[in-house]
Design a protein that fits this description.
Layout lengths: L6 H5 L14 E7 L2 E6 L12 H15 L7 E6 L3 H7 L6 E2 L7 H13 L5 E9 L2 E7 H4 L4 E7 L5 E8 L2 E5 L5 E2 L3 E7 L5 E10 L2 E7 L3 E2 L6 E7 L9 E9 L6 E11 L2 E6 L4 E7 L9 E6 L5 E6 L8 E7 L7
Parallel strand pairs: 2-3, 10-17
Antiparallel strand pairs: 1-2, 4-5, 5-6, 6-7, 7-8, 9-11, 11-15, 12-13, 12-14, 12-16, 16-17, 18-21, 19-20, 19-22
Length: about 325
């Protein structure tokens, strides 16, 4: 490969970054625990345009296609003269490696998200691909980098921190509900899957302040196996205790370890809530932004006067998710819960 296409291959239309100038640049290659490592003499001055966005992706794809011909190769690491960071810095990419537990970078945020909502562990980053201003995709593999890729899409906030916008793995596609669709309990989930033995787990997860709450979880939903096939099921869930983001997560387990091997996650909205009162003369519900000194920004979103006795009234959140809490006011010294 490093010698580039032959004359016959070039005549047939094949193209490569590599040529006779890069022939013999390989210093060493080894495969261990599913990871292929290739070390080269520095050829960055011979292929300078590979550091462009398109060029780096194309060069990595060419290298990966060569090494991943071996069926047990799950991931790759490249270096110049033993220096991994130098190779990926030339390509303007983040080098692969085991992710730290904390941090505010895109890779760390993606890893934390999959740990929280899908229970994925021993995650190894493949690459951070910047897809636009303040947007990035991070590919991660569980089981110390030997598992399949789950890609997390992130958006960067004004303070520089990265927040998840979704996740997907090739084995699971969610068709229903759509991202940011309003859902109520029980929610119907449908899509396509090629997961091992077609067995899927579904969870409705709520993230708030760095902690996760399981709002609902299915035992198992059957989908495709040995090729893509449809899946459909329902999951009941409760309302979250605090403001935050709610995610519908479909995952599958590794046949070898039983741990979560891959997950697809979509963010959803919730379709309102209810307050039950007894013998109140009037009830008003306000949406109050969370924080100090925000009471003046409270918004009346429901107002009702019961005819008599016990009643329940329901409201819709006008623009959920928002960092807010809800309060209700009863115009009587009676029970209001």
């Amino acid at each position: 490969m490093l010698a580039g296409p032959t004359a016959a291959e070039r005549k047939a239309g094949y193209w490569s970054f590599f040529s006779s100038e890069t022939s013999g640049m390989l210093r060493s290659a080894q495969i261990s625990n599913g990871v292929a490592r290739a070390d080269f003499r520095n050829f960055s001055t011979i292929i300078p345009n590979a550091s462009s966005s398109f060029g780096s992706a194309a060069l990595l794809a060419e290298l990966d296609a060569t090494l991943k011909q071996f069926p047990h190769v799950q991931s790759t690491v490249y270096s110049f003269n033993g220096d991994v960071a130098a190779f990926y810095e030339w390509l303007q990419r983040v080098p692969p490696g085991v992710l730290p537990a904390g941090g505010t970078g895109a890779a760390a945020a993606a890893s934390a998200f999959l740990r929280q909502v899908a229970g994925m562990t021993d995650l190894v980053a493949g690459e951070v691909r910047h897809t636009g201003t303040g947007a990035a995709d991070v590919g991660l593999r569980p089981d110390s980098g030997t598992g399949p890729v789950t890609t997390v899409t992130l958006r960067q906030q004004a303070d520089g921190t990265w927040v998840p916008a979704g996740a997907h793995t090739a084995a699971i596609r969610i068709d229903q509900p759509a991202g940011l669709q309003a859902i109520s309990s029980p929610v119907t989930i449908a899509g396509q899957s090629s997961a091992f033995e077609g067995q899927l787990s579904v969870g409705v997860m709520h993230l708030a302040g760095g902690s996760v709450t399981v709002l609902g979880r299915s035992g198992s939903i059957s989908g495709g196996s040995m090729g893509a096939g449809p899946f459909q099921g329902q999951v009941a869930f409760v309302r979250p205790p605090t403001a935050g983001t709610t995610w519908l997560v479909v995952s599958y387990q590794s046949a070898r370890t039983g741990a979560t091997a891959g997950a697809t996650a979509v963010q959803v909205k919730l379709t309102g809530s209810s307050v039950t009162t007894t013998a109140a003369e009037r009830v008003q519900v306000y949406l109050v932004p969370t924080g100090t000194g925000t009471a003046l920004r409270a918004r009346l979103i429901a107002d009702a006067a019961p005819a008599a006795g016990t009643f329940a009234f329901t409201w819709d959140y006008p623009d959920e998710p928002v960092p807010a809490h809800h309060t209700h006011v009863c115009e009587a010294a009676h029970e209001c819960a």
